[in-house]
Every structure is written in structure tokens, then in C-alpha cells.
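thought: fold this chain, then report.
action: predict
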Amino acid sequence: MLKTIFKAALAGAICVAAAGHAGAQDVTLRVHQMLPPQATIPHDVLEPWGEAVEKQSEGRIKVELYPSMQLGGTPPELFDQARDGVVDVIWTVLGYTPGRFPKSETFELPFIMTDAVSTSKAFQEFVEKNAMDEFSGVHLLAVHTHGPGLFHTKQPIAKLEDLQGMKIRGGSRVINELLTKLGATPVGLPVPAVAEALSKGVIDGTTIPWEVTLPLRISELVTNHTGFSGENGLYTQTFAIAMNQATYDGLPDDLKAVIDANSGMKLATMAGEAMARQDAVGLKKAEDAGNSIVTLGDEETQRFKDASQTVIAEWVAQGEGRQALLDDATALIAKYTAETAKGGDGMATDAAPAAAKSQ
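observation:
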């Protein structure tokens, strides 16, 4: 009888241990972000990322997507939600928390970015080299940028003076400072608030890339779109996809390997490519609507560049080592832009310049 009891107890202990071991390996990742599910990054990056992670983990990782701040809070709170474990994974705009990511802010400076793919790759390498300390408290999956930012306004912009006094939405501290130097009145708003602000006349226009015009239906709210000649866009914004550190640390090594295989430069490139594709779609939608799409000539573009130089000079002067960061950023952007031009990303080479050339 004692032997039978002992065997039963041992079998029960083994079952409990096995169940506990399986439970420790299986995980559900709640991915939280600010935009509707059909927007570019949610649909073309986060959704396929989740599918890849689920497949490669053989179902041991389940990914749940929560768009439009469904789990509560506001867009500027997303990074802290990942850090504090409120959610497991977030996608956010770094510029929504001014001053928190000063090194990453380098990529928001005017007229240094080129296209979404090249600049995203450059930003990923830049952060890995220079700015990982800004992401302490989370496990960083990837960073990226959007394509060339431009003006979408109710009234046309044909020259620098046309911008004077216009109330223009800016998405970060650096972009708002740029708008001030250009003579506009900056209005800081997160992306989800832009459409309502335009429709109610709170702003006269907004600075966003072509791809963001799609979910916000910007081409229906304004009829003027103004870009710039040359290789460099007016600006870009910086984004991060980050995981709660404890969530990552709690994974067994084989599931960490699945996350790692779908992170870093691979994920940054995926995001840049998605942005580039949708830039072309956003441009075509504005063209089909019969909107005025203007590319300022070299001379007028140079006037905008000259007016924006004080933004760069003042940013560099705000901290020791910033000139070195800027030099590294511009060198990395040049490196990856040259690679893209050689056909390193055939799809991106076709998509991103198409939007720029047609503006």
C-alpha cells in the first residue's frame, strides 16, 4: 500500500511539474499601439510579425494585437506601458515624450533623412551603436523612421513666405521648433488627433509623410501637398517597437531565439519597406483626388534649408557630443542610401523615390 501511495504521489508530482514547465514556456504577448488596425505599421508590420513569431514558436507564443489604444492610456504613455509591464509589446513615436530620447532625436533634424528604408536601417544601426541606454527598462525589438515628411495644407505653399502664420501640426519637439523657424505656428498633436483638428479648423495643415495620409483621409480634408526637391526630405520621425523586459527575460532560450530572429535590422527594414510602399499609395490617392501636388524647385528648397539650419545648430549646442552623433547619423544615412540606390532593396528603390519624384 505504501509503495502504491508513493508511486501515485510521484506520478502526480511529475504531472504537476510537467504542467508547470509547459505553462512557463507558453506565453501570450499583448501588442498595444495607437493607430487603427488597417494603418501601415499595424497591418503590414505588427500583424505579419505576430504571425511569424507564432509560426516559428509552433504556437507556444500567441500574439494579440490591440489597436487604437484599446488597452487604455494615451499615445505618449505607450513606452512606459511596456516598461512597467502594463502590456507586453508596444509600437510608439519617440517624439511624443520630448527630451526623453535626446540621442535618437538626431534623426528628426531637418533635411538629413532620405527614404524610409535607408533611413530606418541607418537609425537601427545608430541606436545599436550610440543610444541603447535610452531604452533601458525595455527589451528593444527595433527602431525605424517614416518616409519624407511634407506639408499637407488647406492653402497652397509655393514659397517660404506662404507658410507664415499658418497653424501647422508637428509631431515632436524638434519638428515644432523647425516649424517656428520656418515662420509657422506649431501645434503639437499626436497622429490620431490630426483629422479632427483639420476638420474643425484648429490647424491649417499638418506635417506627415504620404503613408499617414491614408488612414487619416488627409487627401479629403486638404487639397494642397508640398514637398521638396533633392535627395533629402524635410524631416522624419522616429519609432520604436519594444517589449517588456521581464516578459522577454521570462522566456525559455528557444523562444527568446524566436523573438531575436524577428528583431533588429530585419524588423527595422520590414518597417521601412512598409512605409515606402504606402508612401506611393498615399501619393496616388492624392493624385486621383485631383489635389495640388507641388515639389518646390531647388532654389526655394534651399531657402527652406537655410531657414532650418538654426534648428540644427541650436540642437548641437544643447549637449556635448551631439555633433559627433549628427556626423554618425548622416554618414549612416548616406551609407544605406547608397546601398538602396545600388538595388540592395529592389522594392524600396522603386517605391520611395516614386513618391518623392511625383510630389
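thought: worth noting. The chain has one domain: 27-359.
final: C-alpha cells above.
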